[in-house]
Amino acid sequence: MIITISREFGSGGRELGKRLSDVLKHPCYDKEIIQTIAERHGFDEQYVSHVSEKILQATYPLTIGHRFTMAPSPIAKQAVAIAAEQQKIIENFAKQDDCILIGRCADVIVKEYHPFNIFVYADMDTKRKRCIERAPKGEDLTPTELERKIREIDKERAKHREFYIGAKENTRSNYHLCINTSGIEIKKIVPVLAEYIKVWFEIRAKNKTNI
Questions:
Q1: Which residues on neighbouring strands pair with residue 196, listed in sequence order?
Q2: How many angstroms from the chain centroid is the CA of residue 72?
Q3: 8, 121 in Cβ contact below 8 A?
Q4: What is the CA radius of gyration of the chain?
Q5: What DSSP element (H or E) covers 48?
Q6: Is the C or the N end of the chain the one with fewer CB within 10 Å?
Q7: CA dist 18 to 23, 27, 29, 110, Å?
Q8: Predicted confidence (pLDDT) per residue in 71-109, tens digit
Q9: Helix (H, G, I), strand (E, B) or coil at 168
Q10: Alpha carbon separation from 54 to 119, 131, 144, 186 (Å, rounded)
Q11: Residue 68's pLDDT band (cuts 50, 70, 90)
């Protein structure tokens, strides 16, 4: 049972994944992927996160789809190496056992394992509220600045996904379930969602076909 969660920034995708992990008793991997890369290579975690997305996009088309080739500059080479390592780690998690993978185009990377793919989104008011509640100490953005940050991060995520699949797409049509968390307490929907996912995998196993 492999579950992937893609999400808009501030929509609660990470919380959803962690709570699903508690209910289904499957490990959930999110920042752990970045932490693993940082530890193996001696990099700062924020640097790994930045390089693996923004700088990696700048190397395109030197890195097409899942084939990573050598890039011309040292920083670009690091970006390609980090992206390849991230992909390998995600694939290894999927090979090992049932798990929940959050973000990082995991649904594309582990496609051959036929995961259940979730997309989490919410209206701007909900995303702003969630970001304010979970803001790191010392961050004091105005509502306008916060909204700008949310839109910029979502835009970067869309670009990163476009890099992985090689084309633009209708995002929500590529998922088995899209969840609008606007005005909803995530902990209240997780039990129902967990049962839905179990049924989905049971049906797929019986039919021996992809849903």
A1: none
A2: 28
A3: yes
A4: 17
A5: helix 45-50
A6: C
A7: 9, 9, 9, 19
A8: 455 666 777 777 788 888 899 999 999 999 999 889 999
A9: coil
A10: 22, 22, 23, 30
A11: very low
